[in-house]
């Protein structure tokens, strides 16, 4: 009888009846061959690999993370309730110690969804990892969480949600933003003034292969994780670094992904992107599952795998090594950099423009953050989407200090409901969501 | 007339059914060492004085193959495996004569590495030198494209008595299970063939030329001669017989639990609107997880003759049986003894029962009536708890579409139907401790044999169509057809149903009363770049498990003389 070394939970939700559009990369067929491969390999028969039926997330689970505009029902489809629910199911199985670790193979994905949601960005409506993480924080009292995003695209949505949170370490490894959507995720993006260093971006040059990505994990990610000491490690397991992916330019392999998983030892992995649905996903997903379960994956490779053909150039080697050095340097200097960012300010403001590529929406944000040494800081976002809604979103962080809590409540009280379509208060300290609607 | 025969662990039940209802019923002791004689004597006894011409069908449910597998008394079988990349095929080794050869097929059925005929010939030489006569051949994704299994078979030529090919076993994906199932088919083939020939010849010598069928674990049957190519499908049909025995009496528009309480075990299943639930994957026999379709049943080690012990001050029941109840001269106290003391059951030597239970009561420091009550309640409660866990497990099964998850209703059985020797005695306790009405199936002592006799012929077909490659295949049926690129899901469904109809008739179904259903029909756009290059269509259809057409009058008659 085959037995997994680590008890591993799986949620398989391929959403065979949901697509953005019939020929969109994020469509019904996307996990079909993965499921075929996993079924044919008999992976679900292995003792210690436990398949769960996904629960649905609740409205409250979503509201802990997002400001949905105009409301939750306009943003969430049935599939989103299930895919976020699948991640939550796995997280609960891990937290309840039914399994040692778990992988949610669900779609649609979520890592491009920001805190404020006017529509879909990069095939994502809501951030399924963030919804899952905030749920387990509430339900199990987890505080320090590390998210390692190994999708080829910068996890800008997750970065946005945790930008001001010093207790969430967000590390994104991705193809350099100058060469790929969403065009962000540079070394200089290190988190907001109250949380400098807790966001880490590791942009890699096109054609980085196994050597480069595994080097990053060994030389940068693992030492930082050791230092940060998270209670839980979440892997946003995007699989589009694969050499055959049609919308990226990297040279990673199924063996590489399995090795990465073995090194990273995530408690929870959640599927993100990956659109080489025939040539890569079946092998990569099977590899990740076997690696999580602590089983042999040495026989698992793509039929056309040829390590020589995709080996990275010396130039890429040098670039990768340099990036890792710089990342570590920033990490060790994070307190100093934080002090510099905060200066003597009581409040720090920033203006941003956000483009929703999937839904073709332009959003303009003006953000005000209360500078705080004790917590993530009260946050106020004035958000207006072109020809759409104009809202005011106030966020009081989970571990808010009294001053930030008072500040958030004051912002909400004094907000002029006439000036906005809606004013939101996300009071995470009290775990409530309030809204003021423009009088009719 | 119809004969149903069910070989149980303790007794073999035989019934003769006619338009007038249950004509005869017999019980013969099962001789596990000689099931052939057991079956034969059961058949002889029931047909005594009956004109064989009147007997239209005989359905046997036998555990012959299962016994051999569980006892690991099987001949040496050669396995030739072509895996390609993926899990290490060594992990699925079936025994010493297991050979991995080159070749690879991918998830769409495309060749990614060729088979090497010379390599196969060398393996064949080795197997032949070892005196192997039965061989299984399995390649990964052979149910998408069997070309490698066929090529290996061709290379083997006529050198072995029987070669089993994986893709003929089942349409579902699961390489390790396909290996195990092919291995089991090859392993039980000689014993099944011997049994088949012996039964047919012995009956012929006695002038009994009976049309024999074999019950399958999915609650359907197949013609005896068709079973020669699928010998492993004859395993573990006992629980299926019991479930089919309740089908005629189960509510047609509600969910109910069927429980066959025997001497050693209690077998349970769920019936939804009178139709038993199938296990979505396949039956497990010993250590082997297979692709053999079966009803979704569980078997727990609690029955009327289970051993009752006191362990650490607690009552323990089963899972073993050491013989009949003490009331009947058995060696240890059993739930049946407890029921006698409580006056729930009747018969046997009450003093013997009291003696046995008294010993347990002394250990527990309570009086004998209290001990008997606790044993009875514990046995009933264990059965109810296990049934609850089974329903939970079924409700927790994963689903793969938005529709299924959103629409999927939870099962909530609202009746319990019990059968088997001690069924009426257990029924009272089950009703008192549970939360739904408990009914005893009419003719509870032989309802399993009635179920075997009345079960219909079942089978299933899986069809794949790939409009980019322009082929439709149902490898299990050796069916491949070129299709136009305009081929649709409706075309595939029609094709699958047509194949199923032919298969069912060939297996012995009544052509005028086929109840076919589409279990799954999915269609996916395959996209290259941003253009649809074709469609990937999957259809699975089956004959619904159930009873043969025209059983109603028989069932009504049996119901009419309830408890006679």
TrEMBL record, chain A:
GO terms for molecular function: histone deacetylase activity. InterPro entries: HDACs, His_deacetylse_dom, His_deacetylse_dom_sf, Ureohydrolase_dom_sf. One of its GO terms (biological process) is epigenetic regulation of gene expression. Pfam families: Hist_deacetyl (PF00850). It comes from the Bacteria. Residues 78-278 form the Histone deacetylase domain. Belongs to the histone deacetylase family. This is Histone deacetylase.
UniProtKB/TrEMBL annotation, chain B:
One of its GO terms (cellular component) is cytosol. One of its GO terms (biological process) is glutathione metabolic process. InterPro entries: ATPase_NBD, Hydant_A_N, Hydantoinase_A, Oxoprolinase-like. Transmembrane segments: none annotated. Pfam families: Hydant_A_N, Hydantoinase_A. It comes from the Bacteria. Residues 3-158 form the Hydantoinase/oxoprolinase N-terminal domain. GO terms for molecular function: 5-oxoprolinase (ATP-hydrolyzing) activity. This is Hydantoinase/oxoprolinase.
């Amino acid at each position: 009888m085959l037995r997994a070394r680590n008890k591993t939970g799986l949620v398989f939700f391929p959403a065979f009846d949901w697509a953005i559009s019939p020929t969109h990369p994020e469509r019904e067929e996307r996990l079909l061959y993965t499921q075929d491969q996993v079924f044919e390999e008999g992976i679900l028969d292995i003792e210690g690999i436990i398949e769960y039926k996904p629960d649905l997330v609740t409205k409250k689970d979503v509201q802990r993370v997002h400001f949905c505009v105009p409301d939750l029902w306009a943003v969430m489809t049935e599939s989103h309730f299930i895919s976020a629910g699948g991640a939550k199911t796995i997280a609960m199985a891990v937290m309840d110690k039914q399994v040692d670790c778990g992988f949610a193979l669900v779609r649609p994905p979520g890592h491009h969804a920001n805190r404020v949601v006017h529509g879909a960005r990069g095939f994502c409506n809501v951030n399924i990892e963030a919804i899952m993480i905030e749920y387990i924080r509430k339900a199990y009292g987890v505080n320090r969480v590390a998210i390692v995003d190994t999708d080829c695209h910068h996890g800008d949505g997750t970065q946005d949600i945790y930008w001001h949170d010093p207790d969430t370490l967000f590390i994104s490894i991705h193809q350099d933003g100058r060469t790929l959507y969403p065009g962000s995720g540079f070394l200089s993006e290190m988190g907001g003034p109250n949380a400098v260093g807790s966001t880490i971006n590791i942009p890699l040059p096109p054609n980085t292969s196994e050597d480069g990505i595994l080097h990053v994990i060994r030389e940068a990610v693992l030492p930082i994780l050791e230092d940060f000491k998270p209670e839980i490690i979440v892997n946003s397991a995007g699989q589009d670094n694969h050499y055959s992916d049609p919308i990226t330019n990297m040279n990673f392999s199924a063996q590489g992904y399995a090795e990465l998983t073995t090194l990273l030892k995530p408690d929870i992995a959640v599927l993100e992107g990956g659109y080489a649905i025939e040539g890569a996903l079946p092998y990569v997903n099977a590899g990740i599952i076997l690696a999580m379960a602590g089983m042999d994956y040495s026989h698992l490779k793509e039929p056309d795998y040829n390590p020589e053909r995709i080996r990275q150039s010396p130039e890429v080697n040098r670039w990768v090594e340099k990036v890792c050095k710089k990342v570590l340097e920033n990490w060790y200097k994070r307190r100093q950099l934080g002090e510099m960012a905060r200066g003597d300010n009581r409040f720090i403001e920033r203006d941003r423009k956000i483009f929703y590529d999937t839904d073709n929406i332009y959003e303009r944000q003006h953000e005000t953050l209360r500078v705080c040494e004790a917590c993530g800081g009260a946050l106020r976002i004035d958000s207006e989407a072109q020809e759409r809604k104009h809202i005011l979103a106030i966020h009081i962080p989970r571990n808010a200090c009294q001053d930030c809590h008072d500040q958030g409540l004051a912002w909400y009280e004094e907000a002029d409901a006439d000036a906005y379509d809606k004013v939101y208060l996300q009071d995470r300290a009290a775990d409530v969501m309030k809204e003021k609607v423009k009088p009719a | 007339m119809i004969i149903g025969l069910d070989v149980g662990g303790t007794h073999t039940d035989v019934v003769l059914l006619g338009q007038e209802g249950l004509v005869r019923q017999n019980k013969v002791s099962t001789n596990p060492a000689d099931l052939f004689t057991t079956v034969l004597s059961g058949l002889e006894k029931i047909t005594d004085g009956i004109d064989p011409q009147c007997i239209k069908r005989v359905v046997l449910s036998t555990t012959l193959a299962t016994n051999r597998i569980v006892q690991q008394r099987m001949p040496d079988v050669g396995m030739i495996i072509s895996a390609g990349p993926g899990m290490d095929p060594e992990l699925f080794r079936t025994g010493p004569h297991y050979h991995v050869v080159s070749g690879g097929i991918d998830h769409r059925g495309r060749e990614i590495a060729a088979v090497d005929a010379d390599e196969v010939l060398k393996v064949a030489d080795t197997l032949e030198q070892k005196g192997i006569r039965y061989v299984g051949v399995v390649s990964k994704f052979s149910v998408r494209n069997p070309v490698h299994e066929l090529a290996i078979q061709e290379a083997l030529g006529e050198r072995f008595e029987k070669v089993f090919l994986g893709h003929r076993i089942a349409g579902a994906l699961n390489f390790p299970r396909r290996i195990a199932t092919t291995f089991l088919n090859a392993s039980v083939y000689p014993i099944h063939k011997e049994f088949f020939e012996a039964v047919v010849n012995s009956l012929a010598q006695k002038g009994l030329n009976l049309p024999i069928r074999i019950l399958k674990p999915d609650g359907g049957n197949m013609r005896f001669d068709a079973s020669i190519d699928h010998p492993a499908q004859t395993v573990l049909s006992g629980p299926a017989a019991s479930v089919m025995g309740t089908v005629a009496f189960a509510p047609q528009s509600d969910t109910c639990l069927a429980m066959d309480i025997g001497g050693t075990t209690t077998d349970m299943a769920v019936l939804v609107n009178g139709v038993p639930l199938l296990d979505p994957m396949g039956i497990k026999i010993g250590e082997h997880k297979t692709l053999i379709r079966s009803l979704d049943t569980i078997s727990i080690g609690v029955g009327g003759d289970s051993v009752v012990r006191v362990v650490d001050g607690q009552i323990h029941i089963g899972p073993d049986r050491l013989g009949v109840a003490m009331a009947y001269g058995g060696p240890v106290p059993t739930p049946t003894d407890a029921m006698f003391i409580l006056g729930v059951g009747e018969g046997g030597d009450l003093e013997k029962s009291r003696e046995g239970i008294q010993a347990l009561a002394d250990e527990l420091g309570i009086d004998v009536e209290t001990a008997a009550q606790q044993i009875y309640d514990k046995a009933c409660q264990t059965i109810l708890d296990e049934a609850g866990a089974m329903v939970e497990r079924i409700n927790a099964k994963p689903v793969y579409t938005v529709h299924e998850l959103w629409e999927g209703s939870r099962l909530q059985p609202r009746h319990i139907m019990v059968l088997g020797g001690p069924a009426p005695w257990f029924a009272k306790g089950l009703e008192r401790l549970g939360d739904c009405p408990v009914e005893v199936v009419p003719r509870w002592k032989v309802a399993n044999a009635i179920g075997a006799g009345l079960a219909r012929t079942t089978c299933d077909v899986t069809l794949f169509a790939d409009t980019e490659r322009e082929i439709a295949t149902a490898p299990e049926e050796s069916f491949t057809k070129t299709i136009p690129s305009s081929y649709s899901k409706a075309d595939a469904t029609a094709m699958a149903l047509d194949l199923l109809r032919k298969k069912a008739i060939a297996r012995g179904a009544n052509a005028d009363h086929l109840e076919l259903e589409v279990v799954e029909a999915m269609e996916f756009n395959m996209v290259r770049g941003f253009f649809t290059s074709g469609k990937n269509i999957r259809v699975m259809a089956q004959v619904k498990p159930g009873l043969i057409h025209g059983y109603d009058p028989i069932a009504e008659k049996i119901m009419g003389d309830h408890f006679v």
